[in-house]
Design a protein that fits this description.
The complex is a heterodimer of chains A (about 100) and B (about 450).
Chain A (H helix, E strand, L loop, with lengths): L1 H9 L1 H18 L7 H12 L3 H10 L5 H37 L1
Helix pairs in contact in A: 3-5, 4-5
Chain B lengths: L1 H18 L3 H24 L9 H21 L5 H29 L8 H26 L13 H22 L3 H19 L7 H22 L3 H24 L4 H6 L2 H4 L16 H9 L3 E6 L1 H6 L2 H12 L4 E6 L9 H8 L7 E3 H7 L5 E5 L8 H4 L18 E6 L19 E5 L2 H14 L1
Helix pairs in contact in B: 1-2, 1-9, 4-5, 4-8, 5-7, 5-8, 6-7, 8-9, 12-18, 14-18
Classes of the chains: A mainly alpha (about 100), B alpha/beta (about 450).
């Protein structure tokens, strides 16, 4: 329990951030009409690939001789980036099709 | 410098999502978010770190390769397979988080004293959720892609087994943390988590997969946020939470559109509750011939097309547009009524019709459509079933009861394009088929529309 309280007071800002981000997320997403739910899903999915930042930081702080960690983190980075790049590209492709209609 | 960049990227991510709430600005929103992501990747690569050792080659190579691969996949993928693709990508995101957490645990074991105490717990949780998201997404993909075996993975007492699995995961995690380094417990924990992911999705029906994907997507988001806590990176935290919130909201919205609770979906919904009901009460169905159908459409004033999953599977959206054009050139008003859960994902129909160049203004949503049917000559239902089932309104014993549906029978006549008389996903017969003013037009959606289109052009 003491540990937990300690943790809470040490990370006060982080916890505030967490709280407000949750609210912000709900607020922003609930305004999206059902027409756009498929692109939203794939777009949000691309954003979840943000874990790759962790992979980048991990690789940068790893000892150059520690090949196990390097390889593992590189694979994580590779897989995660497919999610990021593929996700954004395909969302873009879908949304462009919507746009095309608007301009006519 | 990197702090400012992270701030900009966080702003772009939020603003980008915000812009996605309007079809006109959505494309810009996605680009904003993408730029935000690139900036985040860049600043993670340049931010000053204690004992940084470079290793840039290990960073650059995977990014370049995956960018190329991701681009090719995004270019090649069929719009109809969008749900499958999202679930695969989501699985990759989960796997990435798993590998990352595992690598981090490995480092932790070498020097536990350099980490704050809570890190290991967060890592374990992230490992668990990431694993579930990974295998769960893969099974969701298999179900969406129609692999038969994927529907038969359920064991007897599945829900009890799942509880036992969850308990074993918690227990082995506890043993691992307690013994701090007994690797075998970690492996046990990961393996059970992976298995749990499969059993979590197994009982859920194929048509409920969008709900599951959305839920798993929010899981991946939460994992990303947890990893953000470990790496003390605010953008990761923010991005992860945003995705978590997005996934949760979408899940809830989809359940509402089907008038079911999330629990009902997760437990396996229809398959257990209602195959019985009053499916015996049948009547005569009337088939319509190619030429009659064509003539009827040709001399109508207003036609509403109700596209469903069958249209998506047959990839018949372009033919649909073709028929729409023929009819419009003869002064027939054509509209598309889109049910919120039509297709394989909410909004999937809109994407497919947009791909076929159907004008955005021709698509009408549930409420507007229901007002329109009264003045419609022919309602054409293509590969949709449960979303036009009158039982949802009339029959309190029907598993569909209470679900908002399209009242196609209020139009002067309706024609259902369907492969056979088999029941829809909910496993209930549709009394619409036996109504006086309804006719059936059997065949695969693509063949049927092809026949119809030829017939129309001959008129």
């Amino acid at each position: 329990m003491g540990d937990l309280l300690n943790f809470l007071s040490q990370n006060e800002v982080l916890i505030y951030l967490l709280l407000f981000t949750v609210l912000l997320g709900f607020e922003v997403i609930s305004k999206v009409p059902s027409v756009l739910h498929t692109p939203l899903m794939s777009g949000a999915n691309a954003i979840s690939g943000i874990v790759i930042l962790g992979a980048i930081i991990l690789i940068r702080t790893t000892d150059p001789q520690d090949f196990f960690t390097l390889i593992l983190a590189s694979i994580a980075l590779f897989i995660g980036s497919i999610n990021v790049f593929g996700g954004f590209f395909v969302t873009n492709r879908m949304l462009e099709m919507f746009n095309k209609k608007k301009n006519k | 410098m990197d702090k400012i960049l992270f701030l900009i990227s966080a702003f772009l991510l939020v603003w980008g999502l915000r812009l996605q709430s309007d079809p006109a600005s959505a494309s810009k929103g996605n680009k904003f978010a993408a730029v935000g992501m690139l900036i985040a990747i860049f600043s993670a690569s340049i931010m000053p770190l204690e004992n940084s050792s470079g290793n840039y080659i290990w960073i650059l190579t995977p990014i370049v390769f995956s960018a190329v691969i991701g681009y090719i996949i995004a270019k090649k993928i069929q719009m109809t397979s969008m749900p499958q693709m999202v679930s695969i990508f989501n699985g990759l995101g989960g796997l990435s988080a798993v590998l990352l957490s595992y690598a981090e645990i490995n480092k932790w074991i070498l020097s536990p004293e350099s980490y704050p105490g809570f890190v290991l717990v967060v890592l374990i949780v992230s490992l668990f959720i990431g694993s579930v998201a990974f295998t769960g997404s893969l099974l969701a993909f298999a179900k969406l892609d129609g692999y038969r075996w994927s529907e038969k993975l359920t064991l007897p007492f599945q829900h009890i087994i799942n509880l036992i699995l969850l308990f074993s995961i918690a227990f082995s995690s506890y043993l691992f943390i307690d013994s701090s380094g007994g690797y075998s417990f970690l492996y046990i924990m990961i393996s059970i988590s992976l298995i749990y992911g499969i059993f979590f999705v197994a009982p859920i029906g194929g048509a409920d997969m969008p709900v599951v994907i959305s839920l798993l997507n929010s899981f991946t988001g939460i994992t990303a946020a947890l990893t953000g806590v470990i790496f003390d990176n605010k953008v990761m935290l923010l991005g992860g939470i945003l995705v978590g919130a997005a996934g949760t909201i979408l899940t809830v919205l989809m359940c509402q559109a089907m008038n079911r609770s999330l629990l009902n979906v997760l437990v396996g919904g229809f398959s257990s509750s209602g195959s019985s009901s009053k499916s015996d009460e049948q009547g005569d169905i009337r088939e319509i011939s190619d030429s009659d159908f064509a003539v009827q459409l040709f001399y109508s004033q207003k036609v509403i097309i109700v596209p469903g999953y069958g249209l998506a599977v047959a990839q018949a959206q372009k033919l649909c547009k073709e028929i729409q054009e023929v009819l419009e050139s003869n002064d027939v008003e054509v509209k598309y009524a889109i049910h919120p859960v039509a297709g394989r994902m909410p909004g999937h129909m809109n994407v497919l019709l947009a791909e076929a160049d159907v004008d955005y203004s021709k698509l009408i949503e549930l409420d507007e459509a229901n007002e329109n049917f009264k003045t419609t000559d022919v309602a054409v239902i293509i590969g949709a079933n449960d979303v036009v089932n009158p039982d949802a309104i009339d029959d309190t014993s029907s598993p569909l009861y209470g679900m908002p549906i399209l009242k196609v029978w209020e139009s002067t006549s309706s024609v259902v394009l369907k492969r056979s008389m088999s029941a829809g996903y909910a496993g209930v017969q549709n009394p619409l088929f036996f109504k006086e003013n309804n006719k059936m037009y059997f065949g695969d959606a693509k063949d049927s529309l092809q026949r119809l289109s030829t017939e129309l052009k001959n008129l």
